[in-house]
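Changelog-adjacent note: as of this version, every example in the card shows the full chain rather than a window. The one below runs 396 residues end to end.
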Amino acid sequence: MSFQNPVFIPGPTNMPEVLRKAVDMPTLDHRSPLFGQILHPAIEGVKQVLKSRTAQVFIFPSTGTGGWETALTNTLSPGDHVLAARNGMFSQRWIDMCNRHGLNVSVVQTPWGAGLPADRYEEILTADKGHRIKAVLATHNETATGVRSDIAAVRRALDAAGHPAMLFVDGVSSIASMDFRMDEWGVDIAVTGSQKGFMLPAGLAIVGFSPRAMAALETASLPRTFFDVRDMARGYAANAYPYTPTVGLLNGLKLSCDMLLGEGLEAVFARHHRIAEGVRRAVNAWGLKLCAQSDDLHSDTVSAIRTPEGFDATDIVTHAAQKYGVAFGVGLGEVAGRVFRIGHLGSLTDVMALSGLATAEMVMADLGLDIRLGSGVAAAQEHYRSSAAAPARAAA
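Full-length structure tokens:
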């Protein structure tokens, strides 16, 4: 694999050089006032990216999975009931975590390639007259299938049912890349990580807690130590952590938020949509289909591309790495071997995306698929030429 080529996996993403340098910093005393000058601006920046005025943000040395555990253990008790749909690998993993923590999960089995069934959620919540369900889990962007679900619709389902359950959202592959409105959508806990839209190395679990989620801390009795947000809140008040923080990553997060907000969140979202649409037009020109079942479900951060029946899509990923030094994403779970994934998020430009599409074409042609070289690239080029924007600072 060549370090000269950009990666086209859905995370970790390509890093702007300025962020890589921000993470690579000298040691400082994390109990000194200087650390507070890194920590608090990073927290405030994340709040703005979440579009929240009221959330309390907590940043743990971990990944998105640690963020999931933070959400569950700080707000729920053994035996509590939660509602979730299984429509991909990452919703499945969150459900598995609930089971391991002794929670009772009502699982709505949903086809991989479909979005969250908000109408079914409303039916189940309406029938729950005793309000046994304490939380609804929602994966905003299912990274395995390239499916974006409508979180506002899930909130409307809760409201229509008159149900007090909290809404927990996995935004690991959406936040900082696609529009996310924590306050407007009534999200109680938002979970993300450093290695996708924030364009940093893996290593930070980033969670936002609404006031209602913070109130749930008082009654929750699942065990938590490392992920106890009460300890973290006390540390923040003293410009510190309850244990050793990842200072370099926090410094990178501070700068990443500055870059995203400097570019403008709406411009960031528009850039991701433009690049993603170019990829989708390339897929159509190749005569292939996406895993997402309909246009309204298309993710702007990752496209899962179905290959012809009987063809092992994993061969595309393997061949691209071995011959061309380029990384694409393999299919996971139920779609393993049936799709390959092109990640198009974080630090990416139209020109970088074209290099990935050109490589994918060469690989598929090498492997005998009926792909005309240049067809997908030309389709994407036409889109990028007609919708080109000024170079984005966050992608520099």
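Structural remarks: The chain has 13 helices and 13 strands.
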